[in-house]
């Protein structure tokens, strides 16, 4: 989804900034970048939780096999 948005902006040449019109689209760009940052923060949190879950499950499996 994010990649498609970036590709769309690149194909429409919206990734380029005209210095004379930068302040007209400042609020829209700010909202777009905050949304993208929020998406990446959620993705990072999911990654960290997944790694922690994997470590905990793997650790439990090691303890169970040692007890048996």
UniProtKB/TrEMBL annotation:
Domain of life the protein comes from: Eukaryota
Stored InterPro entries: Cornichon
Transmembrane segments: 37-56
Name listed for the protein in its UniProt record: Uncharacterized protein
Any one biological process term the GO annotation gives: vesicle-mediated transport
Keywords from the UniProt entry: Membrane, Transmembrane, Transmembrane helix
Native organism taxonomy: Eukaryota, Viridiplantae, Streptophyta, Embryophyta, Tracheophyta
């Amino acid at each position: 989804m994010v990649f498609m948005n970036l590709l769309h902006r690149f194909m429409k040449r919206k990734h380029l900034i005209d210095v004379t019109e930068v302040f007209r689209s400042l609020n829209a760009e700010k909202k777009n970048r905050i949304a993208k940052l929020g998406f990446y923060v959620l993705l990072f949190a999911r990654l960290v939780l997944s790694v922690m879950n994997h470590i905990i499950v793997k650790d439990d499996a090691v303890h169970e096999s040692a007890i048996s």
